[in-house]
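Onboarding guide, step 5: your first structure request.
Type a short instruction followed by the sequence, for example:

Predict the 3D structure of this protein.
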Amino acid sequence: MISGRNLFGIRVAIAVALLGIWQYLSQARHLEFYLSKPTDIAGRLDQWISDGTLISHLQATVFVAIVGFAIGACAGLSVGLLLGRAATTAKVIDPFLMAFYSMPKVALAPVFVLWFGVDTSMKVIFVSLVVFFLVFLNTYSGVRNVSREQLTILRLMGARESDLMRKVVLPSALVWVFTGLRLSVPYALIGTILGEMMATNKGLGFLLANTAGTFDTTGTFATLVVIVALSMVFNALVRLAESTLMPWQARLDEQEVSI
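The system replies with structure tokens like these:
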């Protein structure tokens, strides 16, 4: 049985060990050009924080990622709920949705630049589209997996469609919805970073492309550290919302850790 405090301690120990190995390999094997060093990366981050470079680029990325994620998640949730309850309509448009979902979203980025230009709106729309399909497909699957027998019994008892949606369908599909939200967090950041690398002079994507283009290994790894940290923060916020809306799921997760 592993308690929460012991689990945190194990994770910290693993992280410290990996950083130590990284530092040793960089110094002993003279791999600074390829791997940089954790101490140098920490120094670069401190420099960027002091001169405002990091805050400026971070704000641009966070704005696009949050707005795009919110729009895409809300649209995916709404369309997933509607089509999940409209079986005939879903069957008609399912091939078109799957064809569009199967298309690599990276291939759409240049087209979005042509359509919407290089300003913030292009990146927001691109991120929204990426997030939309992940949330939509999970929501749609969750709605379609609700017990048909239970819905039929409730209809016979006089329940209206709005009652079924609010009290049965949505609560039953929440697990699927939050799975889609968790999966879409890294893709929201990927879409944001890609858009910034292609068409902007602001954001972590631009900073990443700029440092890599000048063979600044320390700056490149420092930017990657910030991106990973940002992704972890977004995931933590989604998990917080999940534990708030589905406290029973959090208790089940705790029981699995204890076992």
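Each response can be followed by summary notes, for example: The chain has a mean pLDDT of 82.
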